[in-house]
Amino acid sequence: MKYKSILDLIGHTPLVEVRSLSPADNVRMWVKLEGQNPTGSVKDRIALALIEDGEATGALTKDKTILEPTSGNTGIAIAMVAKLKGYRFTAVMPDNASHERVSLLHAYGADIIYSPGAEGTNGSVAMATELAKDKGYYMPFQYGNEANVRAHYEGTGPEILEDLPDVKAFVAGLGTGGTLTGVGRRLKEHDPNIKVFAAEPELGELVYGLRSLEDGYIPPIFDPTVLDGKVKVKARESIVWTKALMQKEGIFAGISAGATIWVAQRVAERLAKDGGGDVVCLLPDGGWKYLSTEAWTQELDVAEEQVEDVLWW
Ligand SMILES: Cc1ncc(COP(=O)(O)O)c(C=O)c1O
């Protein structure tokens, strides 16, 4: 296949069945591999959408530097799109981000401003918001920009429906809420009975890329009315199931994928009692950026913790 630009490879990611992870014979579980995007994550979709939206509205011009608070994936994706389109880019990120992320950003030519690691992404958001008062910066702000939601409403959602028109449930992690809001809206427009569930970390549990709404910041673009429930996850379960994805299905995905697949299994158990069908679980990125966390070498067994879930069904 031939492409004019790497940007043409964004989206149209594959859906793969993960048969061994389904808890019931009448439920088929599918994972959408967003790690297949050019920089290895779902964020390529929104990086392109955010920058093209800035260009379309006239807010982003060639004399400006793009500035964005990001825990990594969005920064790497914006760095790639900015490089191709000829913009300078500065990422604001916590100083405890994994070194693979920092190296990749530098490789794409981005500058990095560090916020205190202890303050997490909220610290990066606060710092970037302050810096963006300088008119030389253009801050797309993925947490508050509808172009983030639109990338999923117009891209990810329709792709799922094209592959699985009868999908019964969709599960994704909660970061900015862009994936859940955009895909959720599109799926429910197609069929209001499709269920949408979030994987949300328990307060204080670190699952890279995901956030707990209980920490006090609710992303403005996140529309909780698209949800039929959410399941709280711990770092431990996320790591255990990231490893299980690799060992049972040969899928090398990031840590939030483990959180999401764990939640998808809870949803599948419920769906099994309700006639069964297809569950789609979005895996945001590949495992490369997490190798230094040694998730795959830890001796953890499949978690048997009590499930503290809320499925409004
Ligand atoms: C690794 C990872 N997983 C999940 C998410 C959540 O996606 P969204 O921001 O669309 O809610 C993100 C992004 O924040 C991420 O980087």
What kind of sheet is the major sheet? Answer: 7 strands, mixed
Named once each, the bound ligands are:
pyridoxal-5'-phosphate
Helix and strand element order: EEHEHEHEHEHEHEEHHEE
Major beta sheet, strand line-up? 1-2-10-7-8-9-11
The low-confidence runs, each spanning 5 or more residues with pLDDT under 50, are: none
CATH topology of the largest domain: Rossmann fold
Describe this structure in words.
The mean pLDDT is 92. By secondary structure, the chain is α/β, with parallel strands linked by helices. The protein has 2 domains: 6-37 and 155-311, Rossmann fold (3-Layer(aba) Sandwich), CATH 3.40.50; 61-138, 3-Layer(aba) Sandwich (Rossmann fold). It has helices spanning 43-57, 73-85, 99-107, 120-131, 146-163, 178-190, 235-249, 255-272, and strands at 15-17, 27-33, 65-69, 88-94, 111-115, 137-138, 169-173, 195-201, 229-233, 277-283, 309-311. It is globular. β3 (65-69), α2 and β4 (88-94) form a beta-alpha-beta unit. The strands form 2 sheets. The protein has a 7-stranded mixed beta sheet. It is built from 8 helices and 11 strands. It binds pyridoxal-5'-phosphate. Pyridoxal-5'-phosphate (PLP) binds next to α6. Pyridoxal-5'-phosphate (PLP) binds at residues 73, 173-179, 208-210, 254, 256, 284-285.
